[in-house]
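User: Predict the complex.
Assistant: Input components as received:
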Amino acid sequence: KGRYREFYQCDFDILGSNSVTADIEIATIIYKTVNALLGNDNFTIRLNNRAILNGLMTKLNLQDKTAHILRVIDKIYKETEEKIRLELSEKVQLSDEQIEEVMSFVKIKGTNQFIIESLEKMFEGNEIAINGINTLKDILSAVSAQNIPEKCYQIDLSIARGLDYYTGSVFETMLDQLPGIGSICSGGRYDNLAELYTSNKIPGVGASVGLDRLIAGLEELDLLKKELTTAQVMILTMDKNYRNEYFAMASSLRAAGINTEVYSDDKKLDKQMKYADRKGINLVIINGSQEFEQNKVKVKNMLTGESFDTISKDDFVEKISSILHSKDKE
Amino acid sequence: KGRYREFYQCDFDILGSNSVTADIEIATIIYKTVNALLGNDNFTIRLNNRAILNGLMTKLNLQDKTAHILRVIDKIYKETEEKIRLELSEKVQLSDEQIEEVMSFVKIKGTNQFIIESLEKMFEGNEIAINGINTLKDILSAVSAQNIPEKCYQIDLSIARGLDYYTGSVFETMLDQLPGIGSICSGGRYDNLAELYTSNKIPGVGASVGLDRLIAGLEELDLLKKELTTAQVMILTMDKNYRNEYFAMASSLRAAGINTEVYSDDKKLDKQMKYADRKGINLVIINGSQEFEQNKVKVKNMLTGESFDTISKDDFVEKISSILHSKDKE
């Protein structure tokens, strides 16, 4: 669902900074964005750091097999543990001991605090890995300083993402109720990516919201508000001879920021009213020759049935605006 | 320029209405949209109506050759008149008299008023054409009732657009200074289109903004505002030990709708200041250990050089908000 050959993504990136400050900013934006789109905290940003994985490879003396190993463990959510072990043994040619080390590493689960303590014990003296662990600690402490619930961030040592592409932090965002849909916002630090395109070394960190997947997810969770209309006022077309006046009124209302629809078909009044009602447009303007001759505007509130007959055409925009605002307050 | 194999367009359509009210609405939206995007009135919406062209074909007894003829005259801006005449004679097999009638029709130029009067004389008693002429009149009179400058609308009898697709009103929008870029917003009434897809007859009228072309045009006219940043405040990272505090402050400012950047690299203070200056960020927060210990926020106005040292951290968001608002008023 939500996986197409062509897809839309919204990216946010910070280029030119090596600092963990940039990683924190991206981790914060992921939370703020997904929270705003979902309207709740039912999602988890999985965090990891490639430096820890690299540290593990160094520790096991498997640097030359890094890419291959990461590609295998990246499948840990899709395959059985047995199959993963078999692949590490047969295809990557790891020893039983090495397989045990790799598997016990990716299977470290628990609170962020527990995982960090386990990692710190495991990688004492391993500078590469400690750098990655510190970045995780810095991110978690900075998001907590911003009062973002820590439950939305979970260290997950099995995510590697894009293998050769990322160099430090990696992020994946899962909807708690729809894990099957996959990550809806992913990214990480990619300090070597620019080198492929320019001779400059431009460090970068960023993430992308996968819009199609996200929308598929929001639909499935019934979180997509379907609005029938944004119109607040509809002008009934009672008399074709006054069409220009209807458009002039609409133009004045719109200039004041009031979303206005001119009923655009030649139908009877009750059909026009029913249409407004069905669309949830709350105010209708019912002006015929009589009202125009008296320089008046007749407004009906579709919710209360209340009619306002005596609005002068000279200040009808302000009057309608105040009726709309008083409704907001109710 | 701005012509790609894949392109983006924004559509607006009214479905289900036969009424000229809908045509007026679309003609109005074209003006309002292009005016808002350009920020000026240097564009012309060319109007025509297929019914008038159909009326001409009926008059000349050329109904069966309509599509072919329209395809030829649609090229009138790209080809010489000689070539057009030759094609009408050789390929469409029109008589000299018929060619004369067609050419004198598409070459009627002048004010909208003049063209309408010419058409009314030309098509007296031709019901099909009169219907089209009346629609043009209704649109022009309704846009003028909304105080939209008539100079932005020009009847142009040579535009046909999409030939078999449109049935009534047709619109094309040209940038006055860049006619070569082609129409940036086109459309019309397509009452038979839905029949191709459903058994229902659904009348419709609408138009599309060609985004790529429009953006190419705006760039060429130097009308695309290039903003360096939307940030109003930048928090300098003077001391890494206070990183969490910087993010907490940013979080409070952002929650109040103040766009805030945390400087994300480990650079010296003067480099950070220069960055803010170059980006046009007017307020910077310069907090070090001293300020945090005194529960203060130090703010510097990059424009005036003025410093505010004594802002209490408890209400710094309101204070900064009021500094920003007082700047707006200046």
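The mean pLDDT of chain B is 91.
Let me know if you want any component modeled separately.
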